[in-house]
Amino acid sequence: MSNVALVALACGLIIGLGALGACIGIGMMGGKYLESAARQPELMNALQTKMFLLAGLIDAAFLIGVGIAMLFAFANPFGN
Prior knowledge:
Blueprint: H1 3-39, H2 44-74
Helix pairs in contact: 1-2
C-alpha cells in the first residue's frame, strides 16, 4: 500500500471510530438522563443543563478528531 492509501485509511478510521464513540456516549447519557428524570422529576432542569453541556463536550471531542483527520488528509505532515 502507498502512503496516500494508508493516510486515507487512517482518516477513515479516525472519523468512523470517533463518530461511533460519540454516538454511543450521547445515547447512553440520554438514557441515563431519562432514567434519573423519571426517578426525581424535581431535578430535571439541573440534570438537563448538565446533559446538554456534556453532549457539547462529547461532540467537541469528535470534531477535534475530524479536524486532525482533515489535517492528515490535506496537509499531511508525514508526507515527503
